[in-house]
Amino acid sequence: MSKDTDYLEINKGLIKSYSGILWIEENELRKSEFNDLTIKEMHAIDAISMYNHQTISQVAAKLHLTPGTMTAMTDRLIKKGYVERIRDQEDRRIVRLALTKRGRLLYRAHRALHNMMVKSFLKGMNAEEIKVIKKAMQNLEDFVDQHS
Predict the structure, then answer these.
(1) Which domains occur in the chain, in start order?
(2) What percent helix, strand, coil does the chain show, rounded to 5?
């Protein structure tokens, strides 16, 4: 197989995979108990995470959104019962975001979907093949970081 053919196949695969993953996420969201959310709101909940309470600016930076856009999204997520604002214990001027019980439930469900996807992606690969995949993924992440 020629290098040009490899390039075209990989490009086609990346586009198809990206579109397919978004479609699966949107479809699963629509048919779930969390169908009051948009895909962007679901990704905001994922970025907020269950583990470290971040500020709106920190979450906005992760999602490549302006703080104003993230504030508006946070307000919607609070009204829908997924997120709450909490005051920092050490500096009461700082407001952090935390997931409610409903937000944590969605977070876990979304992570479970991603875990199934990764297991399927790596199925049947040996350690050397996984090492190559990790290198390719790092290259892709570096590209995204450079252009965002």
Answers:
(1) 3-107 (1.10.10.10)
(2) 70, 5, 25
pLDDT per residue over 74-98, tens digit each? 999 999 999 999 998 888 889 999 9
Q: pLDDT tens digits, residue range 126-144?
A: 999 999 999 999 999 999 8
* Phi, psi at 121, each rounded to 5°: -60, -40
Which pTM was predicted? 0.86
How is 122-140 classified by DSSP, letter by letter?
HTT--HHHHHHHHHHHHHH
Determine phi and psi for 87, rounding to 5 degrees: -80, 140
Residue 63 near residue 47, CB atoms below 8 Å: yes
Span 48-65, mean pLDDT?
93
Q: Is the pLDDT score of 1 beyond 60? A: no
CB contact at 8 A, 47 and 83: no
- Compute the distance between CA of residue 100 and CA of residue 2 in angstroms, rounded to an integer: 52
Q: Which residues contact 47 (CB under 8 A, 6 or more apart)?
A: 59, 62, 63
